[in-house]
Amino acid sequence: MYLLGILTALICAHRALALTTGSPYTSSLAQHALQKVLHDASEIFGLPAPPSTRTNVSLSTWMSTYPDEALLTSLTIPGAHDAATWNYSGARQAALRPVTDLLNASLSDPRAYRCQRRSVAAALEAGVRFLDLRYAPDATGTRLVFWHRDALLGEAAGVEELLFAVFAWLRAHASEAVLLSLQYEGATRAGAANSAAVQRMLFDVLTSPAARSHLLQTRALGTLGEARGKAVVVRRFDMDQLPAEYEEALPGVHLSPAQWVDNSANITLVYNQSTGATAYIEDLYSPDSVPLSANASSNIAAKLEAVATHLHEAANGSEEDLFVTFASGQRLDAEIPVYPETMALGSGTKATPDGGVNQQLLPTLKELAGRRLGIVVLDFWDEPGALVEAVLGL
Ligand SMILES: *[C@@H]1O[C@H](CO)[C@@H](O)[C@H](O)[C@H]1NC(C)=O
Ligand SMILES: *[C@@H]1O[C@H](CO)[C@@H](O)[C@H](O)[C@H]1NC(C)=O
Ligand SMILES: *[C@@H]1O[C@H](CO)[C@@H](O)[C@H](O)[C@H]1NC(C)=O
Ligand SMILES: *[C@@H]1O[C@H](CO)[C@@H](O)[C@H](O)[C@H]1NC(C)=O
Ligand SMILES: *[C@@H]1O[C@H](CO)[C@@H](O)[C@H](O)[C@H]1NC(C)=O
Ligand SMILES: *[C@@H]1O[C@H](CO)[C@@H](O)[C@H](O)[C@H]1NC(C)=O
Ligand SMILES: *[C@@H]1O[C@H](CO)[C@@H](O)[C@H](O)[C@H]1NC(C)=O
């Protein structure tokens, strides 16, 4: 709210001055203020890739090839699971120790938290259009920042800064729409709760003037045409500690955590009782039917089976239903922990001769090319190199 206040004040001051003096002074100050916000955001959003390093420019505008009338639910949309974790390493963990120590966090191996290695900016340029983001208050409890379980991912880039960066990207890519999945991360510290104060902070960020003009304001997944140039909020949080008007005033679709069955290969979630709008979700993030003593290959095989089954159901399902398939997973409690990277890419050793879920998914994606797959949420979406294209059926 503080940042928005400054920007709004600057823009108002600029308008007032422009009317009286025409001075460019406040205009450049507003530019500097935006640069400052984008700089802070870059810790989680990343920096825009220089044009020479962009892999395939047409992927940055792939939605431009679909007609306005296409329903968002009828598209195949690549996603990035835990998109904010791309630079989480031992160095980042150490740099944030002074803060996490205040919360008495006993953090695990950084590999247990890291699910990506390319930035959010790079993901958007490469065609990813669904961002899975997890927020909770920072150590002071005054603003919302990004976490993966008890791992704080950054301090400068909060939810508000990241929204500005996504909005700036959308301004430059007006044919595109970005689905922003925001989930309250519960396990950040002892006693953490999605309290009225936390809910109010998120409400304020999602109803600011900048948010109102850049977030799709409907409460349904409509057509691509109405969503172009906008971010569509997927609400993986409840507003149950506030009066009902707060929930009713929020845009986007509500995939309530209360209905989201934990670690399930086959969730049916009716997200709008009056329209019957339904989401079918595969989110088996830890294939716990496999014994803890089993090797990484067996865990990868179990996850792959859930993913392939769900993609077939998506291909055959009604185009008005939302399908979300998480190809991401882990098995941290196994005797030899299977980190997200091992699940996605294999370990690069004899233990995983066929690679991970990402490599082994390619034949299924080839078989289903051209079919509607819905949202396909990936870990380490950048490997193998043509994975996003394969999801898109290109
Ligand atoms: C870029 O992507 C488009 C669409 O995905 C594809 O048709 C084209 O072959 C790709 N070009 C290169 C150089 O990879
Ligand atoms: C990644 O994190 C490290 C440690 O905090 C930091 O030094 C580095 O600048 C970050 N890299 C990028 C690309 O932001
Ligand atoms: C952290 O541990 C200290 C010492 O046990 C305790 O005083 C403090 O309240 C704890 N802080 C939190 C946030 O749990
Ligand atoms: C259900 O969908 C209708 C039509 O889009 C919308 O007006 C209403 O707000 C939605 N209800 C909820 C609870 O999202
Ligand atoms: C998932 O649920 C749907 C609807 O309840 C059912 O038709 C389908 O067979 C289930 N698939 C699996 C793999 O359990
Ligand atoms: C769709 O359903 C039909 C009939 O149940 C089945 O034969 C076909 O293999 C399914 N297609 C896919 C892509 O799963
Ligand atoms: C993993 O375990 C399965 C089941 O015990 C076994 O068949 C397979 O050969 C093992 N794979 C590797 C690469 O060790």
TrEMBL record:
This entry's Gene Ontology molecular function terms read: phosphoric diester hydrolase activity
Q: Name one GO biological process term.
A: lipid metabolic process
First and last residue of the signal peptide? 1-18
Provide the alphabetized UniProt keywords. Answer: Signal
Q: Which species?
A: Neoarthrinium moseri
Please indicate if the UniProt record lists Membrane as a keyword.
no
Which PANTHER family does this one have? PLC-LIKE PHOSPHODIESTERASE, PTHR13593
Name of the protein described by the UniProt record: Phosphatidylinositol-specific phospholipase C X domain-containing protein
Keyword Signal in the entry? The reply is yes
PROSITE patterns documented for this protein? PIPLC_X_DOMAIN
